[in-house]
Specification:
alpha/beta; nine-stranded mixed sheet; two-stranded antiparallel sheet; 17 helices; elongated
Length: 458
C-alpha cells in the first residue's frame, strides 16, 4: 500500500501490520518489552497508531498495567482520540483483528521495513534538492548523500527525544558489569574504553571511549606520531575484532610501516633506511625482525596516506570498514576543509575540528587527531605546552573531549640527566581529572613504554 506526500511521492506503508502490532501488545502484555526494543513511534505511518504506541510506551515505562481500560485513559490524556467511545471502538477493533499475537515481531518487521522505504524516498528527495540547488560543492553533496544512506542503514534516521526511563536500566547493566569485572580483577579499575597499552594514561582518561575526539599535540620532534602508532598497535593487538584506521597526511604508508616495525622489533629506525646493523648481532636482529613481522600480519590495521584529505573523504572511507574500533589522523593542520574559507585558516580549522567531533559521534568510535603547537612555548622559560599553544584555532580545545600534550625537557636542555622520560600532559579531560603521566621514550626505536617504578607507592 502507498500514499502520496505533498510532493507527489508514493510513500509505502502497511496499516494492517501497524494495527496487528498494537493489537498483539494489548492481547498479550508480555510482548510489550520485546516490541519496544525493536520499534519506535516514528516507524508508524498512521498518526493514530503512532499515538497509541506512545501511550502504550508511556504506561509500560512507568510500570503501569497495559490493558484497554488504562490505555483508553492514557490516549485521552494524550489527545489521541476525540472521546472514549471512539477510543474504545478502535482499540477493540485492533484486538479482534490480530491474526496471531505471537507473530508480533514479524508484524513489527513489516512496519519498520515500510518506514525505511519511506525514509529512503524522502532522503532521495533531499539529495536531489541539495544537488540541484547549485549552492553546494559536489563533494559536500556526496557526503550529505552518503550520510543519509548510512543513517538509514544503521536505523538511526530521525532520532527523537528519548525518555530517561528507557535508558536507566541499560546504563545500570553497563555499570554492574564493570563493577563485577573490577571485583574479579581484585578490585582494580576496569576501563570503559579501549585500552591504549599505557596503564597510567588509561587510568586518567578511562581508555579511549566511543565518540570521543582526542587531540594529541606536541612540538615537532616530541614523538606524537610514534605515540599514536604505539597506541594503534596496542589496540589492534588487544582487540582482534576491531579495525584501526590510520590516516597519515605527512608521512607515506611505507614510512609508517617502517616505524611500526622498528618499534616492535626494537631495531634502530635508521636500519629501515640503511640496513646497517652491528655485525655481531645482525643475524639475531634480522631473525627478531622477521618474527615480529609475522606477528604484525594478523593485526587489523589500515593505513591511508592520501595528502590534503578532508573530513567527508575520511568519513566515506571509514563507513566501508567493518567493526571499526579506532581512528587516528596525523595531523590536523594538513587537513583541508570541504568548504571555501577564502584563506581564513583559523575558521577553516575550526570547521574541521567541529566536523571531526561530529564524525566521532556518528561513527561511535574514538578519534585521535594529532596537532601541531605554535612556537609560543619555546619562547617561554617554562617550555611546557599550554592550551593557548594549540595552533590555528581556539575551537580545538572546545570541540575536543580530551587534549593531551607530549613534552620532553631533555629536548630543550641537553644537560638534563633524565634523557628518556616524556611527560604526557592531560590538559583537558571531560571524563575525569587532568594531570601528568610519565612515559619512557626510546628515540632510537621511535617508541614509548611504561615507566617501571621500583617503589610502587611513588
Amino acid at each position: 500500500m502507498a500514499n502520496f506526500d505533498l510532493a507527489g511521492l508514493a510513500l509505502p506503508y502497511n496499516i494492517e501490520a501497524e494495527e496487528s502490532v498494537l493489537g498483539s501488545m494489548l492481547i498479550d502484555a508480555e510482548l510489550i518489552g520485546d516490541i519496544v526494543q525493536i520499534i519506535h513511534p516514528e516507524h508508524f505511518y498512521s498518526d493514530v497508531n503512532r499515538g497509541i504506541f506512545e501511550a502504550i510506551f508511556s504506561l509500560y515505562t512507568n510500570n503501569r498495567t497495559v490493558d484497554p481500560v488504562t490505555l483508553i485513559d492514557e490516549c485521552k490524556l494524550q489527545g489521541v482520540f476525540k472521546d472514549n467511545a471512539a477510543a474504545t471502538s478502535y482499540l477493540y477493533r485492533l484486538m479482534n483483528g490480530v491474526p496471531s499475537p505471537r507473530s508480533a515481531p514479524k508484524y513489527a518487521a513489516i512496519v519498520i521495513e515500510k518506514y525505511l522505504l519511506r525514509t529512503l524516498i524522502l532522503s532521495c528527495r533531499d539529495i536531489i534538492d541539495a544537488a540541484s540547488g547549485g549552492s553546494e560543492r559536489a563533494d559536500s553533496v556526496i557526503d550529505f548523500a552518503e550520510q543519509k544512506i548510512f543513517e538509514i542503514r544503521e536505523g538511526v534516521e530521525n532520532r527523537t527525544l528519548v525518555p530517561l526511563s528507557t535508558m536507566l536500566y541499560s546504563q545500570l547493566e553497563v555499570a554492574c558489569k564493570l563493577i563485577e569485572e573490577s571485583l574479579a580483577n581484585g578490585g582494580k579499575p576496569v576501563m570503559s574504553g579501549l585500552l591504549t597499552g599505557f596503564s597510567d594514561v588509561d587510568k586518567k582518561i578511562y581508555g579511549l571511549n566511543r565518540s570521543d575526539l582526542i587531540i594529541l599535540a606536541a612540538r615537532p620532534g616530541m614523538g606524537k606520531t610514534s605515540f599514536a602508532l604505539n597506541i594503534a598497535v596496542n589496540v589492534a593487538k588487544r582487540y582482534k575484532d576491531k579495525a584501526v584506521c590510520v590516516f597519515s597526511l605527512e608521512m607515506s604508508k611505507e614510512q609508517l610501516v617502517g616505524r611500526i616495525m622498528s618499534s616492535e622489533a626494537r631495531i634502530p629506525s635508521e636500519v629501515m633506511h640503511t640496513g646497517q646493523l652491528p655485525r655481531e648481532t645482525a643475524h639475531e636482529d634480522m631473525q627478531r625482525l622477521i618474527k615480529m613481522t609475522e606477528g604484525l600480519r594478523s593485526l587489523n590495521i589500515y593505513i591511508d596516506d592520501t595528502p590534503g584529505t578532508n573530513v567527508p573523504a575520511i568519513k566515506s572511507k571509514l563507513r566501508r570498514i567493518k567493526d571499526l574500533g579506532l581512528v587516528i589522523i596525523d595531523y590536523l593542520q594538513l587537513m583541508n576543509s570541504a568548504g571555501n574559507y577564502n584563506g581564513n585558516r583559523v575558521s577553516e580549522v575550526s570547521e574541521i575540528t567541529r566536523s571531526l567531533k561530529i564524525m566521532a559521534k556518528e561513527l561511535n568510535v574514538p578519534i585521535i587527531v594529532l596537532s601541531q603547537l605554535s612556537r609560543n612555548s619555546e619562547k617561554r622559560e617554562d617550555k611546557h605546552p599550554m592550551m593557548s599553544d594549540l595552533r590555528d584555532s581556539g575551537s580545538i580545545e572546545q570541540d575536543a573531549d580530551i587534549v593531551m600534550f607530549l613534552h620532553r625537557n631533555s629536548y630543550y636542555d641537553e644537560s638534563d640527566p633524565v634523557r628518556n622520560i616524556c611527560e604526557c600532559i592531560i590538559a583537558k579531560n571531560r571524563h575525569g581529572e587532568t594531570g601528568k603521566v610519565e612515559l619512557g621514550w626510546f628515540g632510537e626505536f621511535t617508541t614509548f613504554a611504561e615507566v617501571v617504578r621500583t617503589n610502587p607507592g611513588h
